[in-house]
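Hey, I was hoping to borrow your eyes for a little while. There's a protein on my desk that I can't quite get my head around. The fold is given in discrete form, as structure tokens running alongside the sequence. I'd be grateful if you could look everything over and explain what you see. Here's the protein in full, and shout if anything looks odd to you:
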Amino acid sequence: MFFIERIFRFIWFATVMTYRTIKAFIGCLFLKNKNDFFFSEMKKWANEVLKSTGTEVVVRGTENISPDETYIFIANHTGYIDIPILVKAIPDNIHFMYRKSLEKIPMLGLALKTSPFIPIVRENNKNAMKGVEKAVESLQNSGSIILFPEGTRSKNGELLPFKRGAFLIASKSQKTIIPITVVGVEKIFPSDKKFYFRKGKIIVTINPPIEKLSDERNKLTQQINSLEAFYQEQIKFVKMEVENVK
């Protein structure tokens, strides 16, 4: 029965991905208010993806978000499923930055090209800075943005060292920053197994806003180090909490 359920959920997941991607692409091509349409579809996509994979998302701290303000959300990154998890957890329209190379993927690439998301070319420093500038502009002209300061996915749920890029965006924008921790992804979606997932619970903690980041290099480095230590402690605490409940 477990094997049959996994097959059923995989087909459900693939159907959701295909249908929502095509719909978002077509809508963004022909509708005038394409951003509103895209974010509405994205919320539906996130809910359906999580249902199809049997992922329960427990959200803490939504009271720390004001509906009248835009933010920079900073989250740890443990898997591709982080995106629908965060879309569901955050009561706001959020922009993502993505590697421009993802535009080569059939269907997904088309949706990304027409979306309000922000492409960045990591291999090219000049283009990367353009991505930073566009991210700052996006914050000023529309909704919030979410950044993954580790720069890549952690394969075991342990926090990777923070890189400066995300914090440069935060510093330049002078927007309020809200740290978010996501715990439990690596157990539900093991990084060493492709197209595999098991039902389970993810805990998302939306923390209170932190002070604005400095544009002075040494002070910014100190702030990044302090924030990284905070993430390590909170992730460790939530994992211990989950283990004690079992």
In short: Residues 54-245 form a domain with the Glycerol-3-phosphate (1)-acyltransferase fold (CATH 3.40.1130.10). The two ends are 24 Å apart (CA to CA). The chain has one domain: 54-245. The longest strand covers residues 176-183.
